[in-house]
Each structure stands twice: as structure tokens, then as C-alpha cells.
Amino acid sequence: MNSRDTDAFVAADRLGKHYDGASALDGVTFRVPRGRVVGLLGRNGSGKTTLLRALQGLVVPTSGACSVFGIASTSLGDAELARIGVVHQENRFLPWMSGRAHLDYVHSFFERWDSKREAQLVAALDLDLSERIGAMSPGAVQKLAIVTATSHRPDVLLLDETAAALDPLAREVLLRALLDILREDEPAILISSHALRDVERTVDWILCLERGRVVQDEAFDTLQAESATV
What CATH number did the domain enclosing 220 receive? Predict the structure, then answer.
């Protein structure tokens, strides 16, 4: 990565990932500074999840590089990982734990855990922490994942199709929570979605992938203005 990446919380430079000759990511380059909320858009199979996994260091690039906090994603240490919050498209928590036991367990690993924020989100999302995770609905598990990913006040927040399993009311609560987090902490946020309507009220920047390539990387206001003149 070049020296400009130290000014970005999240960055990629000609990032490529290939599987058996097929390109999941092809020359992806972008930068996300602190405080920016990016809508990562694209059809299913466009490379969104692969990109988010690469940023976490879970996928090793075939070519190019990506970084978080100016450090190559494959070299992120405990200190950097503690500053990242992630909601996966499919969250895999221990099914025998209650929601309360799960949050208490995760809490023990984070010095920056904000119990007040946790309580506010649990109440706003109407989440029953006494319920066993294995018995929760997909929407409830997604809510638990959101609380888990945001209660330690992350500096980078990666959300993969977060709203997919939520009802309209829960989506509205999530929107307000994200705006509150942004106002308080100014993290860099990437929200993956295949539908612009799920993120348009939250994001200020659009990064659109098509077949693993960046086809749009611009301010949401600019995109709206361009659309209005067509």
C-alpha cells in the first residue's frame, strides 16, 4: 500500500481475488476516511462479501492489497482487530448460549465495551437476551449481531447485508443507531447491500461492484444529482 493509505481507515489498491480461474475481485481500488458511511452495492455474487472478508484478513488476496488503519489486512493484530466491528451475512454464535451470556462473554474481550450503548441498543431493538441463541429467529440473531458489533465503539464497522433479516421497524432503529454511532465516534462504515433502498438514508458515499470490479465510487449526493438529470 502507498503512503496515502495512512490517511484512510479502510483502503484497497488493485485488490484481486481469484478462485479456480474465476475472479471474485478484479483490480478493486478505493479509500474510506474516518467518518464516511459507504454503501457497498452490487448484485449477489458481485464480490461484496469477498471484499469485506479480505478487509478482515479472512481472505488472502491473489493480487494487490487491502488495509485497515494503514496496516495490511493480513497483518492485523489484536489491537487493530479490537477496533473493528463486523456483522456477517450469516452469524455463527454458540446456539446453547443465551443472548445475555453471549454479550457478557464478548464483553470480556473488549476494554472499550460500552455497557450503556449495549443496553440502549438491546432496548431499542426489543431484543430478549434471556432467549437461547439457537431458538432465536433470524431477525433476533441479526439484532444480537448488531449489538455485538457496535458496543465496543469500533473505529471501523463492516456490515454485510445487515438489514436483510430485519423487519421495517428494526431497520429504522438500526438507521438511528448508526447515525448516533457516527455522530459520537466518527467510524468508517461499510454497509453491504444488493438494494440501494436499504442504505440510502444512511450512507454518504456509494461504492458499487459488478463482477468483482468497481463501477461507481462517488458521493451519494453526486449520484442523486446525476440520476436527476437523466
Answer: 3.40.50.300
